[in-house]
Structure formats: structure tokens, C-alpha cells
């Protein structure tokens, strides 16, 4: 796939785009770019491995359901992420034509990427890049979702068998909503922070 064409397609769709060779370089960039803000996190293995919570929490007020205060429920922290100046999350897949794809079970990740913030950052590695939107949706459902379900220790068929989506009715189903960003949302700055180093699921 053509990295340059992909970046141009993202820019044509209204996104700011930055690209880095490593997760460490991307983390340093975000640490410098986000200062004195309230920050919300969507669940992301990529961002977790980059140590972004600790880096940003040193000089911002960060709300992250994966680092919630003792005694605070997931829902309570997740609701706070929706009211922040800045929101960061990753993506399950992207198409070379410039569409961004995310699957969510609870809704906080996709909700935070759609409305209400000054700026949204999509922090994502290029190993999630697919040729077409159809391929990106397939990856989100049949590659990323089973791995994420397994990471959380769920007993969904996709997690147990580790091969594909079974369109199940499990109580811990993590693919209740599929969001395709065809273009940047109106009224929000959106930046896609690309990482060449393979990261995440």
C-alpha cells in the first residue's frame, strides 16, 4: 500500500496528519502538544504500550477508565472522558482511501471520537492499514475484535476460538457498534497520529 497516497487521502478528508517511526517518538510529540488540558482516553492497547497516561497526566488532568481512581466505576470515569477538552483513542482499522473504522461494545470509545471536544487524536500504527473500506471493516470485526475480547479475558466465541466474529449474543460482546469516519466531524479538530512501528491489535 502507498503510505503517501494514504496520508493525502486523510488530508483530503479534513484530518491533520503526523507520522512517526516509533511509538516513543509519537508519545513525545503528544506529550509536547497537549498541555494544561482536560484529557479523555478511550481504551487502547497502543496508547497503553506508549505510556501515554503517565506522560500526559504529569501536566494535564487525564480521565482514563483503565486508570480510574479507587472506588470509581468504569462508567463514572468513562462519562468524564466525554466532557474533556481533548480525547485520544486508537482505531481498529483504516482504509488506504482514508476511512477510519472502530468497533465498540460499551460505546465510550466511539462516542468520544464523535462530538464535544476541542480536538480528537487517533493514535494508530500502520499495521492496521487495509486496501479498502470493506477490508478495514473485515479487519475490525474478524482480527481486532477477537484479539481485544481475548485481552479482556472474555469467553465470547471469537475470543475462545481466536479466528473470526461469530455475531454472538454474549453478555461481554465487544462489537455492538461499528463506526466509520468517512470524513472529519464538523466543529472538531481531528488529528491522525500515525506510527510506522507495529503496535496494538
Describe the structure.
With 201 residues, the chain is an alpha/beta fold. It has one domain: Rossmann fold. The chain is built from eight helices and ten strands. The strands form two sheets. A six-stranded parallel sheet has the order 1-10-7-4-2-3. A four-stranded mixed sheet has the order 8-5-6-9. The longest helix has 19 residues, at 133-151.
Task: Quickly count the domains.
Answer: 1
Question: Which structural class best describes the helix and strand composition?
Answer: alpha/beta
Name of the CATH homologous superfamily? NagB/RpiA/CoA transferase-like
Q: What is the strand arrangement across the widest sheet?
A: 1-10-7-4-2-3
Total number of strands: 10
Between the first and last Cα atoms, what is the distance in angstroms? 19 Å
Counting DSSP H or I runs of 4 or more residues, the number of helices is 8
How would you characterize the largest beta sheet?
Answer: 6 strands, parallel
How is the CATH topology named? Rossmann fold
Q: Describe the global form.
A: globular
CATH class categorisation: Alpha Beta
Q: Key features?
A:
201 residues; alpha/beta; Rossmann fold; 6-stranded parallel beta sheet; 4-stranded mixed beta sheet; globular
Question: Briefly, what is this?
Answer:
With 201 residues, the protein is an alpha/beta fold.
